[in-house]
Amino acid sequence: MNSRFASSAAALGAFGLALATSPAALQAAPLKVGMITTLSGAGAGLGVDARDAFALALKRADNPEVTLIVEDDAQKPELAVQIADKMIQSDGVDVLTGIIWSNLAMAVAPNAVDQGIFYLSVNAGPSALAGANCHENYFNVAYQNDNFHEAMGQYAARTYANTLIMAPNYPAGLDALTGFKRYYTGELAGEIHTQVGQSDYAAEIAQIRASGADSVFFFLPGGMGIAFLKQYAQSGVEIPLIGPGFSFSQDVLPAVGDAALGVRNSASWAPDLDNEASRAFVEAFKAEYGRLPSIYAAQAWDTANLLLSAQAKADVKDPEAFRAALKEADFASVRGKFGFNTNNHPIQDIYVREVVKLDDGTLTNRIVETAFTDHGDAYAEACKLP
Amino acid sequence: MSGISPLSFALLLEQLLNGLQLGVMLFLMAAGLTLIFGVMGVINLAHGSLYMIGAFACAAVAAATGSYWLGLGAALAAAAAAGALIEATILRRLYGRDHLEQVLATFALILIISEGTRWIFGGFPLFLDVPPLLQGAAPLPGGGAYPVYRLAIIGVGAAAALGLHLLISRTRLGMRIRAGESDREMIGALGVEIGRLYTLVFALGAALAGLAGGMIGALQSVQVGMGEPMLILAFVVIVIGGIGSIWGALVGAVLVGVVDTMGRFLLPKAFALAWPPSEASAMGAAVASLLIYLLMAVILALRPQGLFGAASR
Q: Which pLDDT tens digit goes with each residue over A266-314?
C-alpha cells in the first residue's frame, strides 16, 4: 500500500510540475513498448547496445507512463515471430521496436503493423518495407538499408577504380550491394555473396587476393565482421578495406584492434558529431555503461526520444493522432537534423568516417567528410502513403 | 570481365589448402564421433558441445594467463574431463538402450551445456588472438601467400591423424579399442575392464573435439552454439566415410572440406558463364551450400555403408 501511495504522490507531483511547465504533457497516456532484439550469439553486441541506449533514454526521461519489456531473439526469425505474438497478444504492447536484422524485421514488422501495432525500427531498413509495401504504422528511425552503402559507393567512385564488393546473402546484404552500386561508377573487380552467420572467410580472402582489386567493400555486421577482419589481418593481403559503419562499428573495433586503424566507413553519426544532443548522449552512455556508444546505440537512443516526444503529444490509443505526432519527429536527434520522408524513413546527412585511436587507446570513428546532405532513399517514390 | 578473376595456380593452391584446413578441423571432430560410435555404439549429439567447451576453455585461460599455449592445453584438458564426466555419469546408463534414447539424452546435454556456458560466460562472444609465433602469412609457390596459423592447423591435424593411427594399430589400448569394436561382450569376458576402456575412449574423442575448438577460437569468435554447425558437418563426414571407421573419417573429412570450399569458390564462377555476375554469385552461393549434402546423397546411393564402412553394420 505504501508504494502505491508513494507512486500516486509522485504522480501528483509530476502532475503539478506538468501543469507548470508543459500543457501538452496533460494528455500523456500509458504506453507499453516491446523490444525484440539480439542479446545472445555472434550478433549480441548490436542488440545489447540498442537495448542499453533505449533503456537509458527512458530512464533519463523518467516517465512513469512508458513501460518497456525486452526479449532476446537470438538472431532467429522464428523466435522473433513467437516473441512478437506473445508481446502483442498477452503483454498488450502498443509499440514494437528493437530488431537489428532485416530478415527478422521482415518476419515481424509487416504482421505487427497489420494488427494495428506501431513498429519503430532502430536498425533494420529492408527495401521491401520502404517502397510499395510501406505502411503508415511502420517508422524507420535508422535508415533505409541502402543508405550507408550508397555513401560508400559515392566515396569509392571518387577514390578507387576497381572495387570488389562482398555481403551476406540476406535482405540487408543484397540491399547493401544494390546501394553501393547505385553510386559507384568504377569497375567491379568482383561480387561475393557469403552466408549469414558464416564464420570462416578463407575461401573469400583467397578470391580477394587473386582479384586484382584496388579496394574491397564489405558489409559484415557483428561477429561476421570480426571473424573476417581477424582472418584478413592474418592473410597477408594488403588491399585496402572500406565498408559501411556497421563493419567498423564500436562493437567490432575492440575485437579487431589496430588492424582497423585508418579505415574509411560511412554512417549517419559518429561519437564526435558536434551537436548538443550528441554530446549529451555520448556522455550519458559512457557514464552509465563505461564504454563508447555505437551507431546502433545512437539510433536506439533517437528511437526512444522520438517515442517519448510522440507520447507527450498524443495517446497511442488514438492512432491517427499518434501517427501524426511521430511523423513530426519533434525530438533532439543526436544526428543534428532528422526528418521523415513520405515513406516514414529518415531524411538525414550521411558522413564518411575514419577509424582513429584516442589518447586512452580506445579505437573509435571520427567524421572526415559529409557524403550526402538531406539524403532520402530510392524507394520513397513507390510508397503511396497519404 | 568483372566478376571473374583468372583461375591462377596460386589461387587454386590457396583454395585447396583452405579445403584441407576445413577438412582437418572436421576430421578432429569426426574422429571422436566415429570412435565413440564404433566402440560403444553411442550416437553422441553432444560432441559439438565438447568442441565449444574446448574453445571457451582456450579463450578464457588464454585471456587470464596471456598464453595461447596454456589455453590450448586447457582446451584439451577441459574437453577430456567433460567427456569423461558425461560418460561416467550419463552415457554409461544408456549403452543397452536403443539409439533414440541416446539421441534424446545427448540432445538434452547440448541444451544444458549451452545454457550453462551462457550462464558462466554471458551471451557476448569471446575473442582469442593468434599466438605471436604463428602470426602473419607464409609465401606459397606461384606468388600467393597463406596464413601461418592455418598451415599450423593442417600440421596439427595431420599429426593427430598419424598419432591416432599409431595408437590404434600399435598399442595395447588400440588393440582393446579394435577388439571392443568387433566384439564388445567377448573382450569383457576376456577380463578387460570395459568400463574404464569406454571412459578412456570417450575422453579421447572429447579431447580431439576440444583441440579443434581451441584451435578454431583464434580464427573466429568463441560463442555459445558454435559447435552445432560443426557437428552437422561431422555427421555428414562419418556417414560419407562409413560409421565407425577412422580411415573413413579422414577421407570423408578431407573430401567434405575440399568439396565445400571448392564449391563455394568455383560454382559462382561457373554460373557466371551463363548469368550476370551478381545473380551468378547469389545462385552459386546458394547451390554451394547444398553441395556436400548432394555428395552425401550420391555416395549413400552408390555405397549405403559409406566409403570405408563395414558392409555388415
A: 999 999 999 999 999 999 999 999 999 999 999 999 999 999 999 999 9
Residues of A in contact with B15 (CB under 8 A): 203, 206
| Domain hosting residue A56, numbered range | 28-143+274-344
Give the separation between CA B12 and CA A209, rounded to whole angstroms.
12
Burial environment of residue A4 by CB neighbours within 10 A (0 to 12, 13 to 18, 19 or more): exposed
DSSP 8-state secondary structure symbol assigned to residue B222: B
Evaluate whether residue A12 is within a structural domain.
no
**Once rounded to an integer, what is the mean pLDDT over residues A16-37?**
66
* Contact partners, residue A294, CB within 8 Å, separation at least 6: A45, A46, A49, A249, A250, A251
Are residue A134 and residue A151 in the same domain, yes or no? no
Top-ranked range on mean pLDDT: pick from A54-58, A169-173, B242-246: A54-58
A177, A203, A236 ranked by CB distance to B137: nearest? A236
Q: Are residues A333 and A146 in contact, defined by beta-carbon separation less than 8 angstroms?
A: no
Query: Which of A17-21, A279-283, B271-275 is predicted least confidently?
Result: A17-21
A223 and A303 in a single domain? The answer is: no
A200 touches chain B (CB under 8 A): yes
Nearest residue in chain B measured CA to CA from A227: B220
Q: Which three cell numbers stand for residue A87?
A: 508481446
Cβ neighbours of B289 in A, within 8 Å: 195
Q: Find the CATH number of the domain harbouring A324.
A: 3.40.50.2300
Q: How confident is the model at residue A79 (pLDDT cuts 50, 70, 90)?
A: very high
b/e per residue B141-154 (b: at least 16 CB within 10 A) = eeebbbbbbbbbbb
Asked if A36 and A98 touch (Cβ cutoff 8 Å), the reply is yes
Which of residues A111 and A29 earns the better pLDDT score? A111
**Is ipTM > 0.90 here?**
no
The Cα of A48 is separated from the nearest Cα of chain B by a number of Å equal to: 9
A164 and A204 within one domain: yes
Q: How many domains does chain A fold into?
A: 2
Q: How far is residue A305's CA from residue A325's CA, in Å, rounded to a whole number? A: 12
> Per-residue pLDDT tens for A139-184?
999 999 999 999 999 999 999 999 999 999 888 999 999 999 999 9
B44-80 per-position pLDDT tens digit: 999 999 999 999 999 999 999 999 999 999 999 999 9
Domains of chain B: 23-302 (1.10.3470)
- Residue A211 and residue A232 share a domain: yes
Task: Cell numbers for A22, please give them.
Answer: 508543459
Residues A218 and A358 in one domain: yes
Domain presence at residue A186: yes
Amino acid identity, residue B99? Answer: H
Per-residue cell: A68 = 518497456
Chain B residues 146-165 with CB within 8 Å of chain A: 146-150
Residues A80 and A128 placed together within one structural domain of the fold: yes
Question: B155-162, long-range: CB within 8 Å, 24+ apart, which pairs?
Answer: B156/B24, B156/B211, B156/B215, B157/B21, B157/B23, B157/B24, B157/B25, B157/B27, B157/B28, B158/B24, B160/B27, B160/B28, B160/B31, B160/B208, B160/B211, B161/B27, B161/B31, B161/B250
pLDDT for A99-150, tens place per residue? 999 999 999 999 999 999 999 999 999 999 999 899 999 999 999 999 999 9
On whether both A214 and A178 belong to a single domain, the answer is yes
- C-alpha B56/C-alpha A96 separation (Å) is 35
Does residue A362 share a domain with residue A263? yes
- B148 phi/psi in degrees, rounded to 5: -60, -40
Tell me whether B4 touches chain A (CB under 8 Å). yes
At residue B1, the 3 state secondary structure works out as coil
Helical H segments across chain B, by residue range:
9-40, 47-65, 68-89, 99-121, 148-170, 172-182, 184-189, 194-216, 227-241, 246-271, 277-288, 291-302
